[in-house]
Amino acid sequence: MNEQLDLTIGIESERYELFENPGYYFNFDRRDFIKAFGLGIVFIVPAARALAQQRGQGESGRGGSNERLPNDLGAWIHIDEDGGVTVFTGKVEVGQNTRTSLTQAVADELHVPIDSVHLVMGDTDLTPFDMGTFGSRSTPTMAPQLRKAAAAAREMLIAMAAEQLKVAPGDLRIVDARFLNHDKSKTLTLAEVAKGRKLVKVIPDDIAITQPKDWTIAGASARKVEAKNFVTGKHRYTSDIKREGMLYGKVVRPATFNATLVSVDTKAAEAMPGAKVVTDGNFIGVVAADQQTVTKAANAIAVDWKSPGQPSNAELFDLLRKTGTERRGGEGPRPQGSIVDVVNPPIGGGGSRPQGSIADGLVAADKKLEQTYTVQYIAHAPLEPRAAVAEWSGDQLTVWTGSQRPFGVRSELAEAFHISEDKVRVIVPDTGSGYGGKHTGECAVEAARLAKAAGKPVKLVWTREEEFTWAYFRPAGVIDIKSGVKNDGTLTAWEFHNYNSGAAGIQIKYDIPNTDIRVHQSNSPLRQGSYRGLAATANHFARESHIDELAHAVNIDPLEFRLKNIKDERLRDVLQAAAKSFGWGKAKPASGHGFGIACGFEKGGYIATCAEIAVEPPSDKEDKSNKRVRIVRVVEAFECGAVVNPLHLKNQIEGAITMAIGGALFESIQFENGKILNPHFASYRVPRFADSPAIEVVLVDRKDIPSAGAGETPIVGLAPAVANAIFNATGLRLRSLPLIPKGLTTG
User: Fold this and answer.
1) Residue 739 contacts residue 665 (beta carbons within 8 Å)
2) What is the pLDDT of residues 698-724, one digit of tens each?
């Protein structure tokens, strides 16, 4: 298999942004280590092995296919003369606390205090190649890799210390960064072992790592690394970075999507003192010494755009149904308008092989159900909009930007400017959230183009309106389900068609003899791509709502119905854990209240969510003809193998639940004729403090199972649980997300 196909293995079908054409196209080796790091000891992992591990775990991304790896390096750890431990990884920190969990892993294996370990992350000149921080892969792929490096480093350090102390290696151990012999009569520090060394050690592959049951630092709650810097404002985000002589940039955007440039008049802008206009094909930008001037200059440019007619929300779901002919197997991203075989997906995805006969399953059923569920586009709405600072030094380019894929952005920059990747450095400061929305480097490319024309560093920060308009969205979707069930609650048939939103989370754990599950890729009227959880939210919403409908059709309790049709013990465990903490079945909801339940699994994590809602009169600011739905409390049980940091895992789950409230109740991108109609927080409703329910997180810690990621799966259970609770309270079955964009219509 060639390199490009090898690197695309495992990409879910809805990661459309990773296969887009370039937005713009304008007219270390081993001997360097000691030079770079100074004295001390460097421990490295061969790059081929590290990359193979990432591929094998399903990581991938645009820009990796022509990646120039460090000659033979994939990860390294440096012990300096002072005994400090520096770890280098291409992963990035976007608020998910990966910096902390990876630090815990290294400290655990090296037997050193957590505050003695420093991570260098997301710097393409300093860190080994990484395909990207997405897909909940940092914990299951990078943590074991760093653990192996640290474990091997520990054993090598013990051997060096034993030689200095003239004892057998087996007589030494490391405790709190000190080497001790059996009776503690002989000791050395890490600094004493590293002092004066100029060594590079290649880490062997056959090294055992500490098992979860024996963890001492990992497995326990640890405070966020560098938390004080974030609380006090000391941390510098991309938008805080300043360079000598730096200018500010602004890009003049088209009037609508898919518009072409007819003419541009820049005279008024060019007449402004200090403003410089940059044009390159359809690219129009301005730089100036301050943000006010550059904004005024950009607004002064007169542009004529030609815009084609384009669809609106009203036509969306009919448009998504217009698919092409079915294709099975194959490689590479599918043409839009094709059907994806979820058994042999072209770029990842998942599902179960069609089995049995849907027709036979429906014949065997006592009751049949056929329903359609829809999901609107929603925006990522990150706290930190896209930003980049670009600086050229001759033909060398350095860009600071918030991205989940620094090496992918490096490739985009090299491609846009026709230079080799070794002339581009991308540095990612710890970033204010991404949610899957920061996989592409358009802001970095724009800043670099402006900086090249200006001959000075340029900072470009997207406005909130630009973020809402020109970033990609979570895909909209239409899902058709046809099913059959016997009166005793046994499921007999399950036919599932997803149009456009994708294959993530489409697999089922229900024991059904006759199934047919398919994903249809459609012609999306809006730019779409990755979003936290991908299509798993849409697929869980449709599936768990439909399962609830079937349970009610045969008059069986929704929890009992699920347990009857699920054999997977991990899924049963979280269902029972959530139900127990919620008090499911012990009391009926109060008047105007409803209970709902949902469950599922994705990316190695198992989840069950119980929700209580209340139907209340509208507030003074809401539509008086519709009632308000308030989520009163949520209990969510989650199992992702061995828990690395209980406190941060609970934070992740609580954050996912809070974020899910928006997509479940009211978030929706409104568009018409190539324009976004609600590109501001004033018109795009996100969850507020008043929307926050009481949240109880139940962690199911499985020390016997390798750790999975937790950044995405906890988001998928809320929407169906709330929809099912609304039905329980009102008898109304809502099958579209968002559920109540304008309140609940009960008449």
Assistant:
1) yes
2) 999 999 999 999 999 999 999 999 999
Averaged confidence pLDDT in the chain: 88
Burial class (CB in 10 A: 0-12, 13-18, 19+), 598: buried
* Whether residue 128 sits in one domain with residue 105: yes
pLDDT at 29: 47
End-to-end Cα distance, the chain: 59
Are 411 and 547 members of one domain?
no
Q: Is residue 16 domain-resident?
A: no
Chain mean position to CA 724: 27
If asked whether residues 160 and 261 sit together in one domain, one would say no
Q: How far is CA 614 from the centre of its chain?
A: 31
- pTM of the entire predicted model: 0.91
The answer on 267 and 205 residing in a single domain is no
- Say which residue, 287 or 131, is predicted with more confidence: 287
Please check whether residue 499 lies inside any domain of the structure.
yes
Q: Is the pLDDT of residue 424 over 90?
A: yes
Task: List C-alpha distances in Å: 668 to 378, 380, 579.
Answer: 5, 11, 31
Please determine, for residue 61, whether its predicted confidence score (pLDDT) is greater than 50. Answer: no
Quick: pLDDT tens for 189-199.
Answer: 999 998 888 77
518: domain CATH number is 3.30.365.10
Q: Sign of the CA dihedral 346, 352, 356, 357?
A: negative
Count CA atoms within 13 Å of residue 732 on its CB side: 16
Question: What's the token pair of residue 480?
Answer: 């058709």
Number of separate domains in the chain = 3
Cα 419 from chain centroid? 29
The answer as to whether 11 is a domain residue is no
Q: Is residue 314 part of a domain?
A: no
Q: Are 727 and 596 in contact (CB under 8 A)?
A: yes
For 118, the domain range is: 28-231
Q: CB neighbours of 31 closer than 8 A, spacing ≥ 6?
A: none
CB 78 within 8 A of CB 86: yes
The confidence score (pLDDT) of residue 182 equals 87
- The answer to whether residues 659 and 435 touch, using CB atoms and an 8 Å cutoff, is yes
